[in-house]
Amino acid sequence: MNALAPAPVAPQTHAPADPLAEQILDTLVHRIGKDAQAARPHDWLAATILTVRNDIIERWMASTKAAHAAGAKRVYYLSLEFLIGRLLRDAIANLGRTDEITRALASLGVDLAEIEEIEPDAALGNGGLGRLAACFMESMATLELPAYGYGIRYVNGMFRQRIDDGWQVELPETWLAHGNPWEFERRESAYLVGFGGEVETTDAGRAHWKPAEAVQAIAVDTPAVGWRGKRVNTLRLWTARALDPIRLDAFNAGDHERALQGQVRAETLVRVLYPADSTPAGQELRLRQEYFFSSASIQDIVRRHVQYFGDVRTLPDKAAIQLNDTHPAVSVAELMRLLIDHHELDFDEAWEITKGTFGYTNHTLLPEALESWPLPLFERMLPRHMQLIYAINARVLREARRSGADDRAVSTISLIDEGGERRVRMANLAFAGSHSVNGVAALHTDLMKQTVFADLHRLYPERINNKTNGITPRRWLQQCNPGLCGILSDVIGPGFLDDAEKLSELNAHAGDAALQEHVAGVKRANKEALSSFLRDRMKLRLDPDALFDVQIKRIHEYKRQLLNLVETVALYDQIRSHPERDWSPRVKIFAGKAASSYHNAKLIIKLANDIARRVNTDPAVGELLKVVFIPNYNVSLAEKIIPAADLSEQISTAGMEASGTGNMKFALNGALTIGTLDGANIEIKDRVGDENIVIFGLTAEEVAAKRANGYVPRAMIEGSRELAQAVKAIATGVFSPDDPHRYRDLMNGLYDHDWFMVAADFDAYHSAQREVDRRWGDQPGWRASAIRNIANVGWFSSDRTIAEYARDIWGVM
Ligand SMILES: *Cc1c(COP(=O)(O)O)cnc(C)c1O
């Protein structure tokens, strides 16, 4: 025997009982380089992931081969954000191996749940838009579509939020600190991405772009496992490398900084995720990121197509590219460039191919959030693309004129905003370059047609369509709420796991007292688990019998955490004035991050914490009201909070939340919604029924009318005793005695303009909350409502959403 062979590693007590345990142990030793005694939790995590990965890789290769052999059309989902969260639990649950792996690890003295908890949460996104992309990846694999996600491998994704003395502090999230066993770097899949320089004309009369600078985009692949492991797709994220990582001449001359400059500049491209919720980053770097990932992705797609099918002209038959919002919209110009400059097609043919290939999903109508770039910047960075955009624009405007558009319509259709500083409108580019433009909920799609895209819609009336968002029921029911899943399986069988709409079979049992008892028991257990998590983490004691009233999402004025907080203050006031009334105990739970440059959002976080400090220590309210702000909202935290929620706060100003997906997650886990007629709330209401949801407030139409007709918030505030008192208390420092003027400007904003209609909706919201109290008082009624929510929101599965995209937009089903 080789003297250098490793000593036997497993101690007697850890003698592996099954082959899987043997494999994990072998991986630990030979891949991680630790034995069972020396291994730390992170080592076990890595060994487990690497072992599971073997299974995934085989399916992954089989999936790729099958698509190739069938000559299948592929779907490409381009998104600057993928909020994927942790992957281990998802992957093994989808492979159906959870029990087996739990047992194997237990035989090694390792608790699966414990190592799952230390997996970093991959937060390569801001919020809903990024989470949607992650749910879509899972559903595309589940529906066995050959699909690729394309994005950026940010070294630091979303920041980690710490709360210091009530204030948000942003810290870098180092999710790659322990390496990332899920990913594969594909050095062979590398592309040059150019910037700047100039465009020359060749002797043959063709344009030739000579960039001043080029970086290398390198593919890093992560497998996306579908339900029951039927298919494994690829999430391809780009990282950047300088062509010349080090300039030796400079280095040897002693100028070390200059020698590494190129590498630093390249790495900067993939370092940060831009905050989506602040006004559009005017930063040059943001445009560089958008072009970097668009160009690498489009080059990769065209290369694959030509390699498999030989002729670039068949691209629309074999590739569907979906643009998740306008961040990848420059892809339209990039594909045109490749088709015309590299594949030598004429403009008309290239344009038909481009439109046939792209689809665009719009996520916002807020004018300040519609991306546009100063023309001089765009022209300097992407001179050839600028020429192509002019050419596209000329063509679109010609079509507009021909269809009878007047000057006003032509100016809104134009890809160039000529009002003031000239800018390139990315939404118009994406719209013009796509055969499908979709909204993400019915109301949002209607508003698209009526507002920002009204003239484009008149010009291309077939283009706009609706695809109401969805969530994957694997992560957002099966994995986060196994207790509930067990009960549902017992009652209606496991069919709902494959088809979430089968949950409707539960309707027949909503009145069944035993089922109500069981569902309530699971909810109670989930609330206990959350309480114990918060006790450890925040030294906080919560009563699991209280109503858990939850608002977790990005902090934004349009989402109206402020409405909730002002109402909380009013409730606090009333409990103090009338302690003798029959109040039902409530816990108000908040979580969410504010964009670091968004002053009011950060102040709202501080206000939540200031209110919590005062309310939670007031003996006059005792257990009747508690307020909690949980730091560092992310996917993993959402998975803990949502199964424990009784009430889901979806209270955006009507017309401003395109869809929302948090609303769907809560309903699927048996929370009742208190919400406005906004986004997908409307469709949730239509499905669960008016008696099982609490709707209040102005409609989108009423909001628009109020704004148009001169809304006077002061009159609203002075007309409502509760509101006036609460606003006054906050404004005068009742919750901030250390700095009495802290919230003066925030409250003055409500008096002065109240753009988000907090005052206008306050009384309706306050009454709706009392309606919630009444319903909560009738526990059998509440429980039946919870079951009817679960039963009727299966339609919001992202499997349904993806099936609609596949059929109506991509032509792959
Ligand atoms: C679902 C989800 C969101 C989106 O929530 P909304 O309430 O729709 O804004 C944002 N962040 C995370 C982590 C999520 O899981």
Give a short summary of the structure:
With 813 residues, this protein is α/β, with parallel strands linked by helices. Pyridoxal-5'-phosphate (PLP) binds at residues 83, 127-128, 131, 553-554, 634-635, 638, 660-662, 665.
Give me some keywords for this one:
813 residues; 49% helix; Rossmann fold; binds pyridoxal-5'-phosphate; globular; alpha/beta
Describe it:
The chain is of the alpha/beta class. 49% of the residues lie in helices and 15% in strands. The chain has three domains: 1-71 and 99-120, no CATH class; 72-87 and 122-469 and 803-810, 3-Layer(aba) Sandwich (Rossmann fold); 473-494 and 510-698 and 762-796, Rossmann fold. The strands form six sheets. A nine-stranded mixed β-sheet has the order 7-10-11-4-1-12-13-17-18, sandwiched between helices. A six-stranded parallel β-sheet has the order 21-20-19-22-23-24, sandwiched between helices. A three-stranded antiparallel β-sheet has the order 14-16-15. Strand 22, helix 25 (662-668) and strand 23 (672-675) form a beta-alpha-beta unit. The structure holds pyridoxal-5'-phosphate (PLP). Pyridoxal-5'-phosphate binds next to helix 6, helix 24 and helix 25.
List the topology elements.
Layout: H1 19-32, H2 41-70, E1 74-78, E2 82-85, H3 88-94, H4 98-107, H5 112-118, E3 122-124, H6 128-142, E4 147-152, E5 160-164, E6 167-171, E7 184-195, E8 198-201, E9 207-210, E10 213-225, E11 232-242, H7 248-252, H8 256-269, H9 284-309, H10 315-318, E12 319-324, H11 330-342, H12 347-357, E13 358-361, E14 372-374, H13 375-381, H14 383-402, H15 407-413, E15 416-417, E16 423-425, H16 426-432, E17 436-439, H17 442-450, H18 454-459, E18 464-466, H19 473-479, H20 482-492, H21 513-538, E19 547-552, H22 561-577, E20 586-591, H23 599-616, E21 625-630, H24 635-641, E22 647-650, H25 662-668, E23 672-675, H26 681-688, E24 694-695, H27 700-708, H28 713-718, H29 721-731, H30 744-752, H31 758-777, H32 779-792, H33 798-810
Parallel strand pairs: 1-4, 1-12, 4-11, 12-13, 13-17, 17-18, 19-20, 19-22, 20-21, 22-23, 23-24
Antiparallel strand pairs: 2-3, 5-6, 7-10, 8-9, 10-11, 14-16, 15-16
Bound molecules: pyridoxal-5'-phosphate.
Pyridoxal-5'-phosphate binds at residues 83, 127-128, 131, 553-554, 634-635, 638, 660-662, 665.
